[in-house]
Amino acid sequence: MKQTTNSIVMIRPAAFRMNEQTAVNNYYQKVLDGLLPSTVNAKAQQEFDAFVEKLREVGVDVTVIEDTLETDTPDSVFPNNWVSFHENGDVALYPMFAENRRQERREDILDTLEEKGFEITNIMDYTSAEEDGIFLEGTGSLLLDRANGKAYCALSPRADEELFIEFCEDFDYAPVIFEAFQTVEGERKLIYHTNVMMCLGETFAVICADCIDDKKERKMVLDNLKADNKEIILITEAQVNNFAGNMLELRGSNDKRYIVMSASAHQSLTPKQIAQLENHAEILSSSLDTIEACGGGSARCMMAEVFLPKN
User: 11-25, 86-100, 129-143, 214-228: lowest mean pLDDT where?
Assistant: First the structure.
């Protein structure tokens, strides 16, 4: 199984704004005072377009889908939370915490991929869990080490343990389960998505071990990464707040590997951390300030990796 892909899906926002339904447990979101909604959306579109251009310049195959104004989907720019695409032709659809995010799931996106020659053989639909108030938000909640058959999940209101284990059984992953916290106004609160504090590359892992308060859990997670010979690059909580955990390794032209992140993530890294990362792949960063502030997500969340077979 490959850990990295050359193909991704990205959704160009149509009515991007701070989603009041997700802000209840995504503490990274901020209100940008004094900006009209149309201005916020225009800025988000500019950041999105520049980001896509940078990815395409290095040879990443980006399928861009335009969001629709028919639905109220302020977070549509983060498709990795509702869908994942797998090497065996499976597509997984996930239950979403925020009601308005459930409208992001669109069958026509799957049709577009099939038109591009990708093969979809089976759809694993977990979305009925929403009726029971149970959620698992895609590769935001679960980090897949595809090559080593492990899935990492920081439990939260958006990542249910039983459903995560069910996913692991269906897709043949060994579950690695823990809790990750951040300090919010002096209190330790659960981090809403695993991919904010951790990133898995082919030969490295970026992780904020300080977010895992339970020492046994912290050791267990780090031991799993070490067992798979990944170089562990530790980041701080302050760097997590700049989305330094929200990276993704992709392949460009000639199979060259890139570690993709936002400009704020890149700027928050120390020279030593940058050198460690550059031992594995070239860094590609792009400014996503508006998307990060209003959306509370960053580069990784904007890219749904496509591992589907091609005919």
Answer: 11-25
Average pLDDT value for residue range 105-110:
95
Q: Mark out the alpha helices in 149-304 (DSSP H runs).
A: 161-171, 215-227, 237-241, 263-268, 271-278, 289-295
Structure tokens at 74: 């302020």
Contact (CB, 8 A) for 288 and 45: no
> Taking CA 34 as the corner, what is the angle to CA 30 and CA 37, rounded to the nearest 5 degrees?
75
* Cβ partners under 8 Å of residue 276, min gap 6: 204, 231, 233
Residues 6+ apart with CB under 8 A from 289: 47, 262, 263, 264
Rounded-to-integer distance, Cα 197 and Cα 239, Å = 9
Which pair of tokens denotes residue 198? 């951790």
Which of the pair, 17 or 246, is modelled with greater confidence?
246
Task: Output the pLDDT for position 26.
Answer: 46
Tokens of 225: 């990464």
Q: What is the mean pLDDT of residues 148-165?
A: 97
44 contacts 77 by C-beta, under 8 angstroms: yes
Could you give the percent of the chain with pLDDT greater than 70? Answer: 94
Length of the chain: 311
The residues near 140 (Cβ < 8 Å, ≥ 6 apart) are 78, 80, 81, 158, 192, 193, 194, 195, 297, 301
Query: For the CA atoms of 41, 42, 47, 51, what is the dihedral angle to 10 degrees?
Result: 100
